[in-house]
Amino acid sequence: MTAPSLELIGFTKRFGAMAALDDVSVKIEAGAFHALLGENGAGKSTLVKCAMGYYAADQGQILLNDREVEIAHPRQAHELGLGMVYQHFTLVPNMTVLENFVLSRGDLPAVIDWAAERRALNAYFETTPFTVPVDVAVADLAAGQKQKGEILRQLYLKRNLLILDEPTSVLTPDEADEVLTTLKKLTDDGQITIVTITHKFREVNTYCDAVTVLRRGQLIGTKPTSELDNDMMAEMMVGRRETRTVVEREIRAPGKAVLKLEGLSVADNVGQLAVEDLALEIRAGEIVGVAGVSGNGQRELVETLAGQRDHEAGRMLVHGEVYTATRPEMVRHRIACLPEEPLRNACVADMSVAENMALRSFDQSPSSPDGIRLRRGPMRETARKLIEAYKVKTPGPDAAIRGLSGGNVQRAVLARELSSEGDLLIVANPCFGLDFAAVAEIRARIVQARNRGAAVLLVSEDLDEILQLSDRIVVMFDGRLALQTDAASADVGAIGRAMAGH
Amino acid sequence: MDGSDIGLWGVPLAMLAGAIRVSTPFIFVSLGECLTERSGRINLGLEGTLMMGAMSAYGTALLSGSPWLGVLVAAGVGLMLGALHAALCQLPRVNDIATGIGLMLFGTGLAFFLGKPYIQPKAPNLGALDLGGWSSIPQVQQALQVNPLFIVGIVLAFALAWALKNTRWGLIVRLAGESVDAALAIGASVARVRLLATAVGGAFAGIGGAFLSLYYPGSWNEGLSSGQGLMAVALVIFARWDPIRCLWASLLFGAAGAISPALQSVGVTQGYYLFSAAPYVLTLALMIATCSPARSLRGAPAELGAVK
Question: Chain B contacts of A104, Cβ < 8 Å?
């Protein structure tokens, strides 16, 4: 195998009114280990998915070994030797490594001679820099071995240009080093070319030859890693920013601690610790912004606080009492929560707007006189008031909430959560995917809650949002707090480095 | 039966005999369900298929005089019911479970309706092989009277396990059940694979029905299956979608079903009905022991909606 070069010229891709990619051009040299760096939503995944034929770009030209090629379907990309390794695993868990490899080849005989296939695969593994056990079900492999298996399968299928989408996000640093070291060796030998999407500066510095930085769909630049240091990369990635834009906020000293996390550890869906030994305090009248690249434990943290996930160790205290996220505790401590994807996490999609707005209070007066019977009238009346106060665009209180636009679902849930004048507000990515006006309004509501003395935990992947709203900023990386700083004296470069694990 | 000369040994012996006799329909239905579920589809209608198989086999044997022709017709009827289920499930917004329950009621109802004339007359039996000739003890001889379908069932279990592991066809069935994306990536038609797997699974269940009416209990009536088709679905989960384990689980269920008559044969008559409930209690106990809300079952086909 010889490594090809790849050039992407003038790629533009729009999703509706939003330009995910705006005239982006990248040249990847043959045998390079090339990093694509950028925040969430910078357009890295969109770019490689266009190159692999998963998306049709609005504009753009692909040169492979300086020859123009057309890639309209992933199968065409595969035939040209392009392969992609994802953040999530694509090997079938209930089959062995051998079965997975042989099946993906696609040219099966009627009866498979497993002894011969096993010999052939073992012989092939003699030539590869790392191996995985052949006869073990993929489900039984550790995450690092699974990722190696994914890469090996690409090599086995004779793909010589690999695109890795955050390949190490599921690996421990040691596993990541092992995989990347061997890949580096393959590129140095001129066998394959690698494009890797990453947020981690350490990996870029150690393994990559060149870096392309994207920000909000724009190309910021491509440079050899030897000419860059962490500060420069952080600046390219997050840019120079205004740390404060105008949201009316009262100057007020924070009050007593409302939420206190002590040594909190939370496991993710596969049982690995997503949040590890986390300690955090949020006081009345302050907004604590949790910054970080997604997948560093923020989702699990919010789910734990909202009662959607159990924690493994540590404890949560609200107003000094142990808090286990039960409904009575939430009512007593007046906790409000606006999780990400509210339609999925905080609504019953097929119920009406009025019913969804009553989810916190349907068994209390006036919606219910005795906790058993429900009264539609007052419920609808409350909803009508909230709809007006929060300008929720809906055909009426009886319309199913599923039919509302994303911004209006967000407004409806925010109306419900803020109407109780809570002491603690937990918000996750509140403005994701919303238009400009909606963003400004929802941010203003959050600051209002803070101004009236609520403690606010704001988890967001949008650094601008964090900088704009927070009194204090913490950065989560790999389940831990990598940085804690006052927003007033925050150094954007330091935040960017902390987000990348430095 | 006179159990006094071998004493309490009569109980395990009768349970062995029961395991052999009662387990056969379980084997066929569970293998059918196993195949269907490995392709990523669930078919709860096999209870109905079992009844239709029993009725059509009995009717055919009665009219033609050949019980083996009856078995063949039962398989054909099962094949058609399975294909019907698969075809319905492929329509947009159609739910496997609801369709399955619908076909279960349809199958039993149709079998009762068409089977009315066959309740009285006596059709020819499938007969048995005497494998107990080496023993002089009559109870042993009786216990080892084995129906050929039992042996076919055992062979089928091993053949299915082999095919799922070693043939292109088997691997593609499993891929359709594990990952639709991966199946599409190698150009397999998931819909066609599931149609075939469900149809063949239905044919297996039909044969199980033929055993009920043509060997043990060996007549056609409306209480013939008593939920065995549904228990077989539970049994597949217990067997973790493995044909060989389906075989062992079927034998276990068969033995549980034989506890009550076995105890009666040695004179324990108290609690007859309580012991009759053994297979159902076993089903419940296994379900409680093997299911957990926190994790999905190991070995469960990933695309199987019911266990997702």
Answer: 182, 185-186
- A371 class by beta-carbon count within 10 Å (0-12 exposed, 13-18 middle, 19+ buried): exposed
Q: Cβ contacts of residue A398 below 8 Å, gap of 6+?
A: A352, A353, A354, A380
Residue A378 near residue A367, CB atoms below 8 Å: yes
SS3 A46: helix
Domain residue limits, chain B: 22-125+151-290
A16 touches chain B (CB under 8 A): no
**Coil vs helix vs strand at A313:** strand
| Chain B residues touching A110 at Cβ < 8 A | 167-169
What does the pLDDT read at residue A436?
A: 64
Nearest C-alpha neighbor of B177 from the set B27, B28, B82, B42: B42
**The overall pTM is greater than 0.80:** no
Mean pLDDT, residues A423-448: 83
| Topology, domain B22-125+151-290 | ABC transporter involved in vitamin B12 uptake, BtuC (1.10.3470)
Q: Do B301 and A92 touch (CB under 8 A)?
A: no
* Contact call for residues B59 and B237 (beta carbons, < 8 A): no
Around Cβ A40, how many Cβ atoms within 10 Å?
17
Binned at pLDDT 50, 70 and 90, residue A74 comes out as confident
Tell me what pLDDT residue B307 has. 42
Q: Report pLDDT digits (tens) over A14-57.
A: 887 778 899 999 999 999 999 998 877 788 888 999 999 988 89
A328–chain B Cβ distance below 8 A for any pair: no
**Chain B interface, best mutation among A54, A78, A94, by max B CB count within 10 A:** A94
If you average pLDDT over residues A391-416, what whole number do you get? 88
Residue A166's nearest CA partner among A156, A176, A154 is A176
The mean predicted confidence, pLDDT, of chain A is 88
